[in-house]
Amino acid sequence: MGLTSIKGVALNLVKDIIAKRQGTAGPFRDLTDFLQRIEPQFLRVEVIENIVKSGAFDELAPNRHQLLNSVSDAVQAIKLSGNNTSIFDILEPKLEDLPDFDLNEKSAMEEEVLGISFSQNLLIDAQKYAQKLNAVTFDKLEINQMQLIVGKLLKYHQILTKKNEQMAFLTFTDGINQLEVTAFPQIYRDIKAELSEQQVYLLRLKTQADRYDIHAQQHILNNLKKNLIFQRRINTNDS
User: Fold this and answer.
1) Structural contact between residues 92 and 77, judged by C-beta atoms closer than 8 angstroms
2) Residue 212 and residue 28: Cα distance in Å, rounded?
3) Helix, coil or strand: residue 143
4) 64, 85, 116: which is the final residue of a domain?
5) N or C: which end of the chain has fewer CB within 10 A?
C-alpha cells in the first residue's frame, strides 16, 4: 500500500516526496526535515496530519501522539520562516511530553485515513506466524515455564543495578493486554540495540512468582527476536 492510499495525499505530493528522498539530502530524518524539504504548496496541515495518522512516520518518531500534536505549529513555523533557518529555529515548536496513543487509538486513526489498520494487522500477522512456533497469548503464561509470546513494544525503562550494570523493564502489548518484562543485565546487553518502540517482537521468557509479592508474577526475558513482519516507513518508495 503506497502513500497515495492515504486520505488527501495527491500523486504530485508522492512524486515530490520520492524525488526529495532520492536527492542528495537522502532519506528524511524527522518531521521537520520532511516539512522543510517538500514543496510549499504541499504544506497543508490536514494532509500532513493524515500522513502521521497512517503511521508513516512511526519509524522516525515512534510517539505518534507527540508528533500529531506538533504538526499545525510546525507547518505554521515553516510558512512564516520561509527558507530562513535562523527564524525557524526561533519559531520551531517544542515537542510536548505526551503519552503515546494506545494500539486501539492508532488502529482507529489508520482506519480513518487508510480504510485499514496496519497496527492491528501487523501484530495479528506476527501472532499467527508465531503459532507455528507454539507461542502462547499473554493470558496463557504459566509459572516456572519457558514460553514464547509475541508482543509490540510500547516502552522500556533502563536502570542501573547495584553493580552499576544496565538492565531494563519493557512493556509489551498483545493488542488487548499489557505485560511488563524484565531484562536482566546479561540479556539486556545482548538485545538493547534491537529495541525500538512500536516494533513487534517474538520473546522467549520465563514466568515466576514475584519474590516480594506472592500474588504477583515476574516475567524474565530469555531472548528476543525483532522484525517478524516488515515495518512500513516513509522512507520506503511508494509503489
Assistant:
1) yes
2) 47
3) strand
4) 116
5) C
